Amino acid sequence: MALLDPNAKTALLQRARSAIARAIGVTRDPQIPNPQFLIPADFRAGAFVTLRIGGRLRGCIGYPEPDLPLVVVVDRCAVSAALSDPRFPPLSDAEWPDVDLELSVLGPIERVADLNEIVVGRHGLVVEFGRRRGLLLPQVAVEWKWDAIEFAAQTCTKAGLPRDAFQKGAKLFKFEAEVFGESNP
To answer: Which CATH class is domain 6-25+37-106?
Structure first.
C-alpha cells in the first residue's frame, strides 16, 4: 500500500518530532514543518504514532477514523503518544534524544467475513463488540509471530473481550497500513 511519497513521509516524521519537542518543552520554536505542499490539506486518513527507545515501545497512540486531515491526526497522536499513553509516564526531555518515531497511516477499514482474508504482516485488525473496541497494527502480529487466529484473539484481548469473541458475535475488521519511521523510512 503506497499512500505517500518519500518526501511526504519525511515531512510527516519531522512534523511529529517537532510537535513532541514543543509539547515536552525541548524547544519553543514555533516553526513546524508544513507538509501541506506534499500532502493535500483535505487528505484524510487514520494514523498511529509509535515511540520507541532502544527498540522498546515507549508510547503508541492512534486515531483510526479517516475523518480528520492526516496532518492534524499526526500532530495530535504524536503529542498523545509522548504524554498520554496510559501505559507509560510522560516522555522526559532526558529521553527525547533516544526516541525513534514510527508512523502508521491507515487505509480503509473493511469487515472480515472469514479469517482466511487476513494476511499477517499486511493487515491490521479491529474488533468491536458493543462499546468495546480493540485495534492492533499489522506489524504487531509479525513482531510476535502470530498466525491469523492468534492475531484475532489478541485483538479481542486488547478490547477487553474474551479471546474467542471474534467467533461469538464480535465484529472483526481488517485494514492495511503504510508503516514508516526514522529508522526504517
So the answer is: alpha beta
